[in-house]
Specification:
Structural class: mainly alpha
Oligomer: single chain
Number of helices: 9
CATH topology: Arc Repressor Mutant, subunit A
Largest sheet: 2 strands, antiparallel
Strand order of the largest sheet: 1-2
Strand content: under 5%
CATH architecture: Orthogonal Bundle
Number of domains: 1
CATH class: Mainly Alpha
Number of strands: 2
CATH superfamily: Winged helix-like DNA-binding domain superfamily/Winged helix DNA-binding domain
Length: about 220
């Protein structure tokens, strides 16, 4: 079995449109808990949030938020490590997988837009794009509205790489859930709606600066 790569990628860090295919790897009894954890990763890797989004009303970080943030960070680290162990043949770096996942979710993005979405330096994105292009996982296309600009698209090989990584993470998460007592699995399942709502709130906060900057470049 393999593991649920959404926390590591994208489990981008992201929850692309192939979410149904990812969750198909998770048995029905663990679907609610797994879904909440998967969606919890959606805001990761986006543009940094302002202090208003990260702190309480008094401008100070709250113990509850600090504890939750640490728990999510530990879960992401564990999933990344578990996925690497479960799929040692995957030679793509995490940053490469995250860029592919982001591009799958936002096809036709320009390098600068990806840099802002992933909070990466422009030269880092260029290096990753060159490496993925040489492996046939993405293509450069001249923008219709500006012949000097380039848009990026994921190839079939790139999409398969993302799906494989996410399926690996899904399987790892299922295996880990199966070792927990039934009471803890029920608690995770009950928390899934709240985790999903929190992930969406993080998405909204992270999307604001990225959307504003994207409009500046259009």
């Amino acid at each position: 079995m393999v593991l649920l790569g959404l926390l590591g990628i994208g489990l981008g860090i992201y929850t692309p449109a192939n979410n149904a295919e990812i969750m198909a790897a998770v048995p029905a009894r663990d679907a609610a808990a797994a879904g909440g954890m998967v969606n919890m990763t959606r805001g990761d890797g986006r543009a940094p949030m302002t202090a208003v989004g990260a702190r309480g009303t008094a401008g100070q970080a709250t113990p509850q938020a600090d504890g939750l943030a640490e728990g999510i960070a530990r879960l992401r680290r564990a999933l990344r490590r578990g996925a690497r162990v479960a799929d040692p043949g995957n030679t793509l770096a995490l940053a490469q997988l995250e860029l592919l996942a982001a591009l799958t979710e936002h096809p036709g993005s320009r390098p600068g837009q990806l840099a802002r979405r992933l909070n990466m330096r422009a030269n880092t994105v260029t290096t990753i794009v060159n490496a993925l292009s040489s492996r046939g996982m993405l293509e450069r296309v001249t923008a219709d509205d500006d012949r000097r600009a380039v848009k990026l698209t994921v190839t079939e090989a790139g999409q398969q790489a993302v799906l494989s990584w996410q399926a690996t993470n899904a399987a790892v998460l299922h295996l880990a859930l199966s070792t927990l007592p039934a009471k803890q699995r029920r608690a995770l399942a009950a928390a899934a709606p709240a985790l999903d709502a929190l992930a969406r709130a993080i998405d909204q906060l992270a999307d604001r600066p990225a959307a504003a900057q994207d409009q500046d470049t259009d």
